[in-house]
Amino acid sequence: MNDTKKYLITSALPYANGALHLGHLAGAYLPADIYVRYLRLLGKDVVFVCGSDEHGAAITIRSKKEGIPPQQIIDKYHTINKEAFERLGISFDIYHRTSEKLHHETAQEFFKTLHEKGGEFEERTSEQYYDEGFKQFLADRYIVGECPKCQHPEAYGDQCENCGSALSPTELVNPKSTLSGKTPILRETKHWYFKLDKHGEWLKDWIEKGEVDGEKLHEPKSWKKHVVGQCMSWVDGGLLPRAITRDLDWGIPVPVEGGEGKVLYVWFDAPIGYISATKQWAKDNDKNWEDYWKGDNVNLVHFIGKDNIVFHCIVFPSMLKAHGDYALPVNVPANQFLNFEGRKFSKSKGWGIEQLEYLEEFKDFDNKEDALRYALIRNMPENRDSDFKWDDYVDFYDKELADNLGNFVNRVIVLTNKYYGGKVPEVSTDLTARLKEINDLAQKIGKEIEAYNFKPAIQAFMELSTYGNTYLQDTSPWKIWKTEPDSEVVKECLFVCLQIVNLLSIYCEPFIPFSAEKFRRILNLPKVQNGDLATALTKLDAGDVLLPSGHQIGEPELLFVKINDRKDSSRLDIVNRQKEKLAAVLAAEAAAAHEPVKDEITYDDFTKLDIRTGTITAAEKIKKADKLLKLTVDLGFEQRTVVSGIAKQFKPEEVIGQAIVLLANLAPRKLKGVESQGMILMAEDKEGKLSFVQPHTVWENGHVVK
User: Fold this and answer.
1) What is the mean pLDDT of residues 98-123?
2) Which of 551, 584, 593, 615 has its CA 20 to 30 A from that of 465?
3) Nearest 5°: CA angle at 515, between 511 and 518?
4) C-alpha span between 435 and 545 (Å, rounded)
5) What ranges make up the beta strands (E) of 433-556?
6) Could you read off the pLDDT of 570-617 as tens digits, one per residue?
7) For residue 170, which phi and psi values (nearest 5 degrees)?
8) CB-based contacts of 244: which residues, under 8 Å, 6+ apart?
9) Pairing relationship of beta strands 6-11 and 45-52 according to DSSP bridges
10) 33 membership: H or E segment, kind and range
């Protein structure tokens, strides 16, 4: 299965201005890791690159808010995110940094090449939004307002994530700075613009047909519908030149005359980080980086979230083509968003959990990495937004990993040790048909991975385990052994099941790599190596076996200890603490939605209040007072005039005849020249809507409320 192709796989460079949460992991890093590990198992020549995006306004904003240098921020979060990725088994070949000298040189060279070509850039003096409070020009993503096309109230200055439309900041209705919350002003400045508009025609053919200049580059049917849809909405809407420089003091200096005080826009600089990371990897491993970026045999795949589709499918490919020689991506399998217990992740509201936070809070859970990986794969937002729930996390682990996979492996290993001293039994039966069935199931897993369908792939993986479980249960060798300890049926059953366990131990590697090591130890086999899956599938296809007769396996070892375990509640306690944290957030939000209880009073204070039932008999507006109504209230023993601030929500004719409760001994007060002789009691919800406080049953006017 080896070929001459070079596979260059990238995951979106995360901003080094904060710790990453589980939604990031499910979006761009876990799916890429599965794909890369699978390619390695097939013996492919693959390089997996990523790194911290350490420039742009996001870093400077945090720097200003916290009063610390940008370098201190990027050093902190680069270290945090890199450690989290490593501990969760995300197997980058290199995790680079855009603050490195090599990246600065690479990005500047790229810019100068396009600049020297002529026709790719234009210089423009234009008005751009400027935040007077923060004293800086605003990047598009730091301006929000109403989308002029769908009226979404929180569209960004470059794109509306609700309708997918491309925007410019000046198109937004009622724009606001996300830094100060105030309306920015327009100020004149000069920048370089990349002529994206000249690339529309070939982009359309490339995205819709997979062709550029008549050459087939990829199969468009393999691209996700939401990716193609968003790209075509941009292309069909007409592409516009995009500014690729910014007025900032943090970033890569513009390397041409007139660029003083300006830096490369982060969305021009960041994707070039894939190239500089590859250069650094090649330098460290005595390779030629161009082999993985240039030539017909390069397979470039970008793993991202849906918010980065435009930059990876339109902007960066246009930059590569304008530069020349570079290969274009064969796929950009962008995932949708992962929500958390029904809501968006929000650090400020305490909703969600970060990657490193998860690892620390689950430190006493011995299989926490694979438990999380498996739950995220089973609920991966591949074609629509999905929702992570702690109850699902428990069910996926207990019912699928422990009850299905773990139970099958354990029974096979226990029975083999019991009946044959831990040696793979010898069989005389022709197993060609059985091995073909196993091979078909195994091929299904690979086909789903190659189609970037990782959730169906993990389900196909479990189908292979279920097949083994069903075969073992239907045969029930423990029953046959009691009367026929030398039965060929028992030997055949355990022989076949051991082949399945071996295959599962290899296929574990992309999905749950920490468990793969346990699998191999139980089977008394070395760790999975590059090319092992290719070798296994070749053998199965030829009707050959994977684990020969006479091979000595290891002792039984429980692969997955259930979370919901009656004997040991420690794992469930860890999960329940997470649920309790969310319950506390909801309780705090509910409390915050209501006005706080006022200062304590005594019973004697309360008895001073004279509260009476009554009926509104007349109502009229008060001139030059939009909020006030003049009401006549019948208390049974007398008529009162009351001024009430309810005119915004009630018309005079709507309140006549309304039963009310009145604070009758409130000192009179003149409002707009009208003396008010009491106060009508009202209730107000968190949206400010008013309703009358009134008796549950009909009471005569004048009754005392106690």
Assistant:
1) 96
2) 551
3) 145
4) 8
5) none
6) 999 999 999 999 999 998 888 777 667 778 888 888 888 999 999 999
7) -75, -10
8) 111, 121, 191, 192, 193, 194, 264, 265, 267, 268
9) parallel
10) helix 30-41
Element (H, E) at 654: helix 652-655
b/e sequence 163-176, b meaning 16+ C-beta within 10 Å: ebbbbebebbeebb
User: What number of CA atoms fall less than 13 Å from residue 62's CA on the CB side?
Assistant: 17
Could you read off the pLDDT of 26-63 as tens digits, one per residue? 999 999 999 999 999 999 999 999 999 999 877 887 88
Three-class secondary structure of residue 302 per DSSP: strand
Q: Compute the distance between CA of residue 88 and CA of residue 77 in angstroms, rounded to an integer.
A: 16
Question: Alpha carbon of 206 to those of 5, 301, 335: distances in Å?
Answer: 21, 15, 20
- CA-CA distance, 220 to 216, in Å (whole number)? 10
Q: Give the chain's end-to-end CA distance (angstroms, integer).
A: 86
- Residue 2: band (very low, low, confident or very high) from pLDDT cuts 50, 70, 90: very low
**608-631 pLDDT, tens digit each:** 899 999 999 999 999 888 889 999
pLDDT at 161: 79
- Phi, psi dihedrals of residue 131, rounded to the nearest 5°: -90, 110
- Give the domains, in start order, of the chain with CATH numbers: 6-107+265-338 (3.40.50.620), 118-246 (2.170.220.10), 368-541 (1.10.730.10), 603-705 (2.40.50.140)
CA separation for the pair 121, 63 (Å, rounded): 31
Q: Outline where 243-396 has alpha helix (H).
A: 266-284, 309-310, 316-323, 355-361, 368-378, 390-395
Tokens matching residue 515: 């468990």
More confident residue, 474 or 695: 474
Element (H, E) at 48: strand 45-52
Strands 94-97 and 45-52: parallel
- The answer to whether the CB of 34 falls within 8 A of the CB of 446 is no
Q: What's the mean pLDDT when you consider all of the chain?
A: 93
Which of 10-24, 301-315, 496-510, 663-677 shows the lowest mean pLDDT across its residues? Answer: 663-677
Chain-centre distance for alpha carbon 408: 33
In whole angstroms, what is the distance from residue 487 CA to residue 476 CA? 12
How is residue 506 written in tokens? Answer: 């290899």
What residues have CB less than 8 Å from 98, skipping those under 6 apart? 13, 51, 52, 53, 54, 55, 107, 269, 270, 273, 276
Residue 370's contacts (CB-CB under 8 Å, 6 or more residues apart) are 401, 512, 513, 514, 515
% of the chain with per-residue pLDDT over 90 = 78
Can you tell me the distance from the alpha carbon of 426 to that of 416, in angstroms, rounded to the nearest whole number?
A: 12
Tokens read off for 464: 């292979």
pLDDT at 696: 67
Residue 294 CB partners (closer than 8 Å, separation 6+):
325, 326, 327
CA 338 to CA 595: how far, in whole Å?
33
For the record, the structure tokens of 619 come out as: 């109502």
Question: Tell me, what's the pLDDT at 626?
Answer: 83
Give this prediction's pTM. Answer: 0.82
Rounded Cα–Cα distance for residues 206 and 214 (Å)? 10
Let me know: does 352 contact 345? Beta carbons within 8 Å: yes
Give the H/E segment covering residue 676: strand 674-676
Amino acid occupying residue 273 = G
Tokens linked to 264: 């490369």
Instruction: Give 133's Cβ-side CA count (13 Å radius).
Output: 12
